[in-house]
Amino acid sequence: MKNVFGIHPTAVIGDNVRLGDGVTVGAHTIVYDNVVIGAGTVIGAHCILGEPNVAIYSDVESYRNPVLTIGEGSLIRSGTILYAGSELGAGFECGHRVTIREGASIGHHVRIGTLSDIQGHCEIGNYVRFHSNVHVGHKSTVKDYVWIFPYVVLTNDPHPPSETLLGVTVEEFAVIATMSVILPGVTVGRNSLVGASSMVRKDVEPETVVAGNPAKTVASIHDIKSRADGTAVYPWPESFDRGMPWQGIGFKKWRDSAESQ
Amino acid sequence: MKNVFGIHPTAVIGDNVRLGDGVTVGAHTIVYDNVVIGAGTVIGAHCILGEPNVAIYSDVESYRNPVLTIGEGSLIRSGTILYAGSELGAGFECGHRVTIREGASIGHHVRIGTLSDIQGHCEIGNYVRFHSNVHVGHKSTVKDYVWIFPYVVLTNDPHPPSETLLGVTVEEFAVIATMSVILPGVTVGRNSLVGASSMVRKDVEPETVVAGNPAKTVASIHDIKSRADGTAVYPWPESFDRGMPWQGIGFKKWRDSAESQ
Amino acid sequence: MKNVFGIHPTAVIGDNVRLGDGVTVGAHTIVYDNVVIGAGTVIGAHCILGEPNVAIYSDVESYRNPVLTIGEGSLIRSGTILYAGSELGAGFECGHRVTIREGASIGHHVRIGTLSDIQGHCEIGNYVRFHSNVHVGHKSTVKDYVWIFPYVVLTNDPHPPSETLLGVTVEEFAVIATMSVILPGVTVGRNSLVGASSMVRKDVEPETVVAGNPAKTVASIHDIKSRADGTAVYPWPESFDRGMPWQGIGFKKWRDSAESQ
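^ Those are the sequences you sent over. The predicted structure of the assembly is below.
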């Protein structure tokens, strides 16, 4: 197919852009100054990489675009806007029209769905999965292997509008189902599950299920059985491995070998 | 006005694209291989049609772009992304920056609002209306004359993340109000009404109103009166006809004549 | 930096477009006929300004694009679509991929976040702040100094689908937290606070806090203390001034001087 791979002639490329071997830059995509893209990465059409921060509008003379780094083997789908001053690890993949602002630190093998809005100044671990339209406020911390589903919001302002920002922390392997809101300063515990449409204002204990508005503890995750075969589903790494480092190995075997390293 | 109709010189057109008479393709729009567009259809600016599926990234040599078909007399507003491998009926109309992935089968005279995200591998009937920002998961079935309002999610995974997908079914003439979530495997019955901000985990009986988190049955649809004139509002086809096939005819008269065919 | 300021050569400009001194129009942006842009305004890349209304598709011969006016010193971030027939005051600022349809009247120094969807035929005052992904239905009235957070919906149809539209009114200084829905015809009172994930079906009294699904009054705003220092937070203008006309002056002093004018 034409117009999919390589540097498209309609792309607009700034100064001091470093493209690794075999990088694709799609039609009408704009790459501003000081963007570093790892080998084999595919940038779709209509993207903007290294979008300047707001400081450029107040003092263009002294403005210097911060570095945006995108790891090797990544796939940035069309319409995505990545600000200058963030760092994305290897194997990053995103849907369409994602926005990631400055100061985001994102690990390796992360996937972020269409229309998600990462406000920047946040930490996202490795193998994190965001479905479409996830909103992550400043100062959020999302650890490895977390799953977040559509229209979830991680808030940060306990009494808006204010200058007090208390980020949300989501611990390893936690799952937050669609349309849930996590209030400022809340910790969502390791291996926990937040049900759909929850409004979570208190910390979620590890390995518990919370649900409702406001959210309350409704079960242990160990109580949930598969609707396909009746077996235990959670902690999910023991029943799901697609795209995870334990794929084809089994979580416990992988963990034991990994921990032994 | 300039720059609105015709094939804009900045459009990028692939191989084996079949454009019907009088088709418009807007500025900076990209049409990939094997797209078929019916006569009189208008494609806005900054669109992507026939976006390749993910398979292209793993094996470009053997990849062949599936056909995308858009029916005649359609209006695809700017910024919309339609994947290869879907089929949209005649008179399709959508807002801006809609995403429709592969394997979507969409009937005729459907309207889908700005920023809606149709995940593909789903069935959508005729004369369906989605307002802005509706999210439709894989395996959803939405039948004819259904209305869905902003930020509604049709889910599919009963214990995320898993490989068990149970789609939602929305029956004819059902209405789902804004910010509601329909849990996996639920059937929303014919002529029913789901109130705003509902979290629906059980089937909704035909001709009932459900509301709340979790949603409960709160009324029969026949109990709801117009705030304009106090008359019965539901089933809505008897009080609303704009854009519907019974416009200017009356629903019962149209139905009787249609059923007699 | 290149490619940020000035009229980019890839921009497509229509007839009768009036650009004030020092206006920037970004790469691949389309400006249709009859757009008026005030001095010093920056239009990002991939925008569409003066998008024609739907009438153009039914009768292109007689269609004349209504005027779109953007005030001086504004910042329209990339990917934004502004319809013909709206008016935006000076100092307007928006995020990425905002949509504002025809018939919107927007005051000065307003900020609207990424992906927000303003349906048009609405009134928005001065110094209003919308965060990302706010949905404003037709006939909404949002007065000065209102704050609305992500995924809030201002609805308008009391029994959808119908031809009865009852807009929401949000009074001065009111705050609506994330994921809340305001039902048709509701008035959100001056200085009030709507908690996150609320479903508001009754008027909100001034200076009260409502929360829940359905929302109930839970406190006076005067009861809420800062998590940073324990002081009263609301009415918020007395504790927050960034970007407001009383910045560096103090709200009461500013108000007294302003009221004396």
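The domain at 12-223 of chain B is CATH 2.160.10.10 (UDP N-Acetylglucosamine Acyltransferase; domain 1). Chain B has two helices and 30 strands.

Shout if you want it in another format.
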